[in-house]
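WARN  no MSA supplied for this record, continuing single-sequence
INFO  ligand: uridine-5'-diphosphate
INFO  echoing inputs
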Amino acid sequence: MPRLYDSRKRILVTGGAGFLGSHLIDRLLELGHEVLCTDNLFTGTKRNIDHLHNHSRFEFMRHDITFPLFVEVDEIYNLACPASPIHYQHDPVQTTKTSVHGAINMLGLAKRLRCRIFQASTSEVYGDPSVHPQTESYWGNVNPIGPRSCYDEGKRCAETLFFDYHRQHGLEVKVARIFNTYGPRMHPRDGRVVSNFIVQALKGEPITIYGDGSQTRSFCYVDDLVEGFVRLMDSPADFTGPVNLGNPTEFTIRELAEMVVKLVKSRSKLEFRPLPADDPKQRRPDITLAKTRLDWSPTVTLDKGLPTTIEYFKGLA
Ligand code: NAD
Ligand code: UDP
Ligand code: UDP
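INFO  complex generated
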């Protein structure tokens, strides 16, 4: 339901030209808000927000959040950060700067404005978990010096900063730990498993399974996730998170490969490749907290979400 005019907010979405950010913006505009999108277009693209070009409540600003930002808004969603291993390992120092300096700048902005701020954290803060499924109380098993550390430790430090600004300055913070999410507008060359498998299946190329394909992940459809973001932002002030947002249904990577091949009706064969360093063996969110505090749980199953995603990739000539 669209909100009434008097509850309209001006909302900043950093990383808004990316996969998740652009879907969140669509939703916020649908709810009647004004949106200021900032992005340095490192992994995002204007194509994701092209349809908003003439929207009267939408504004785009090219900006890198590692630099200070002086704007006037009522709420901040901080999503800016490359999310796929290929992208975040391309310039690891910049990745850490985006998470850490970016968080400091956005928290400084929220502090000046006394406004709520949401952080897109990640299941990667759990590293290669020794507890399964992962609850928010688990502190994680993260390598501080490996190739994934710029992302994992950057996001962990960002969480620390969010909670220190909360404790020290009384900021209202909302921290979501996002698990693997997929859907239209994923980057076709980001190396993520869902986009890789769909692109390979559509081209009839071999489906590249890393390791023996027995490692597990749980895949959340983007619309479900965005619903969780909005509910978290609108939750009572005393609820800071961190809260897991993801789909708890677990699949092996091999099962995913077989499902994609079937849905695309592809002639692609499965091909096994070496497993990358520090690749987590198992990952599944415990979403009890999100269910209890946000009355949220995903509704789109993989067999429903994959076809829409496949159609999007078909459309990318
Ligand atoms: P994405 O790469 O599509 O979007 C990230 C956006 O941030 C891009 O548009 C990029 O250009 C922008 N960006 C990067 N560095 C920036 C900087 N310094 N200043 C301004 N903009 C910058 O990735 P996504 O999948 O949409 O992820 C969005 C957020 O959600 C990220 O913070 C990511 O860590 C988090 N997340 C995503 C997933 C997932 O499954 N997609 C899982 C866990 C966490
Ligand atoms: N900052 C910003 N926009 C603002 C206010 C602050 O980008 O509207 C940045 C500012 O440049 C600073 C950071 O946020 O580097 C942290 O601000 P804070 O006030 O917490 O710390 P301080 O300025 O005291 O170092
Ligand atoms: N993966 C794979 N083939 C690919 C891309 C990824 O088998 O072409 C595997 C990868 O090794 C990991 C899982 O799929 O075990 C999920 O990888 P992704 O990069 O999508 O996400 P993350 O590791 O961050 O969960």
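Residues 85, 180, 192-193, 196, 208-210, 215, 217, 253, 275-276, 279 surround uridine-5'-diphosphate (ligand 3) (CB under 6 Å).
INFO  checksum written, moving to next record
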